[in-house]
Amino acid sequence: MFPALFSQPYVVALFYSFFTLLAFAFYFIFADMSYCAYICPISAIRNAFSRDSFMWLGSYESACRTCTTFECAKACEFDQSPFNFDKNNSMGDCTLCMDCANSCAAISYKAKGSGFSLLKPIRKARNVDVWTYLLLFAFMTLTLKFTAVWNHAPGGEMLPWMWLTHGFSQAYPRSPVRFEALFTLLFSVGITLLLAGVGFRMAARTLKADRSRIFREVGYAYAPLALIASLGVAGESFFTRYFHSVINGFIEAFHLPCHFIAPLATPQTPWLHIFVFFDYLAVGWTLFLLWKRVTLFAPEKSVSKHLVTTLWLSMLPVFYLGLTFFA
Ligand code: SF4
Ligand code: SF4
Asked: Are the C-beta atoms of 218 and 293 separated by less than 8 Å?
């Protein structure tokens, strides 16, 4: 993925040292954990994942209604108001540190159905959450899918990004850039943005609504596609590409007296297909959520408009389903 320069330990050490120092600098420049809230991308990814969580932090409304101290908010270093989480159907930038729970017994932390918050309107819906889902899908799920299943399948060299990879590898044989990873990634991002972009544009036309509002409020439906499908692809990649690479890396790095090991599976290994379950689950759940969130977004529109809008927005999951079928 990265230039070969990043394979060298001291470059990686410098890379992380730089960002650690930067983190310290931001910590002192900005108060109240603003590095975590506004700079660190992990925060956006954590918030995205929390939508599929089984657990939910909220508060007992009967106690909060008469509260005058708001100890929970005072205890929160992240400037959150947990008494509003249920009302907003959003846990904001909560890190689940539980400081608020130590300050007041009215904080609740309950198991709920996974992704239950996606079935309800989300007050203060945020573009950044939807962008996180789309980019996670593009960078992780789709890129891994192409790499693990498609790039080296029979005829894979005819895929446009592999065709470019061959061309550039021949033209620049000494380049430290790994062209296959680069072009697979660029095409994954391009395809994702194209299908999602056309879907939102056509949805806005169908509903005669503001495109950015549809993006922000309906786009949460792509959460399972980004989060659940990635589990299946990551599982496949672990057995076909990464497990033996990690073990062999240790053997090589520490001169262990062992033979290098072969991959645990190939893309053709029959039992590897159990991971396809995650793909079907993710696509099915995304299609259901698209329908649900479209009807929540425009309840006054007819069923046929809901259906057409859902179909336009389904291009991305249906494309992914096609990849899974023909893999
Ligand atoms: S959780 Fe406790 S401190 Fe916070 S608003 Fe409710 S009663 Fe008040
Ligand atoms: S769990 Fe931590 S971050 Fe979340 S609201 Fe409570 S104190 Fe704030």
From this structure: yes
CA distance 252 to 263: 16
Give the DSSP letter string of 266-326: -TT-GGGGGGHHHHHHHHHHHHHHHHHHHHHH-TTS-HHHHHHHHHHHTHHHHHHHHHHHH
Listed as ranges, residues in the chain with pLDDT below 50 are 1
pLDDT for res 31: 62
Q: Ligand 2: distance of its center to the CA of 79 in Å?
A: 8
Q: Which ligand has its closest atom nearest to the C-alpha of 61?
A: 1
| Length in residues, the chain | 327
The pTM (predicted TM-score) of the whole model is: 0.80
Write the burial class of residue 301 (CB in 10 Å: 0-12 exposed, 13-18 middle, 19+ buried): middle
CA of 56 to the centre of ligand 2 (A): 12
Residue (of 212, 195, 189, 214) closest to 203 by Cα position = 214
* Residue 166 host element (H or E): helix 160-171
The best mutation among 61, 65, 66, 71 to test binding of ligand 1, ranked by most ligand atoms within 8 Å of the C-beta, falls on 71
Domain assignments of the chain as residue spans, ordered by start = 14-119, 127-326
Name, in order, each residue with C-beta under 8 angstroms of 186's C-beta and a sequence gap of 6 or more: 161
The answer to whether residues 162 and 151 touch, using CB atoms and an 8 Å cutoff, is yes
Residue 59 C-alpha to ligand 1 middle, in angstroms?
Answer: 7
